Amino acid sequence: MSAYVRLRGKRGALNNEHGFTLVELLTVVFIIGILLLIATLIYTSSVSASRRNTCKSNLRIIDGAISVYEARLESPPADIDALTTAGFLRKAPVDPHTGKTDYSIVGGSAYSDGGHQDYP
Q1: How far is the C-alpha of 64 from the C-alpha of 106, rounded, in Å?
Q2: Cα angle at 44 between 38 and 46, to 5 degrees?
Q3: At a CB cut-off of 8 Å and minimum separation 6, what does 43 contact?
Q4: How many angstroms separate the CA atoms of 85 and 78, rounded?
Q5: Residue span of the structural domain in which 91 resides
Q6: Can you tell me the mean pLDDT for 8-35?
Q7: CB 101 within 8 A of CB 94
Q8: Is residue 17's pLDDT more than 80?
Q9: Count of domains for the chain
Q10: 64 located within any domain
Q11: Within a domain: residue 13?
């Protein structure tokens, strides 16, 4: 029992266990880095999906306004401003990718001039 008492320090801990080793600290830093990388990738993909869904929704709203405009006035609108001045839209929706309201009406459908072209 006296050998056991000699190995212990003043606070009761073993003398060779005062802190973490460099390998343990590097392992923890590496794991935290991996977790931050995963969180960043998830965040950026969710922001991209949100912008894509907002753009699709805006185009559906404009398409519906064009359909009602053509049904009531029997001619297609010249531009997006014709829909707002006639009261079919309160205001032109903002493209989430560019932050602008530049839409073109081609053949009865609306297209964003600055956004992505892969939307139906």
Answers
A1: 14
A2: 100
A3: none
A4: 11
A5: 20-112
A6: 80
A7: yes
A8: no
A9: 1
A10: yes
A11: no
| Residue environment code for 72-107, b if the CB has 16+ CB neighbours within 10 A, otherwise e | eeeeebeebebbbeeebbeebbebbeeeebebebee
User: What's residue 99's pLDDT?
Assistant: 87
Residue 9 falls within a domain, yes or no? no
Q: State the DSSP H helix or E strand holding residue 73, giving kind and residue range, or none if neither.
A: helix 22-73
Q: Which amino acid is at 110?
A: A
Residue tagged 């992505």 (tokens)? 116
The CB density around residue 59, as the number of other CB atoms within 10 Å, is 20
Rounded to two decimals, the pTM is 0.63
Query: How far is C-alpha 19 from the geometric centre of its chain's CA atoms?
Result: 41
Answer yes or no: is 87 within a domain.
Answer: yes
- Percent helix, strand, coil in the chain, to 5, is 55, 10, 40
Asked if 64 contacts 56 with a C-beta cutoff of 8 angstroms, the reply is: no
- Dihedral of the CA atoms 65, 67, 70, 71 (nearest 10)? -110
Closest among 92, 26, 34, 35 to 65, alpha carbons compared: 92
Contacts of 79 (CB under 8 A, 6+ apart): 103, 104, 105
Q: CA torsion 35→37→43→45, rounded to 10°?
A: -130
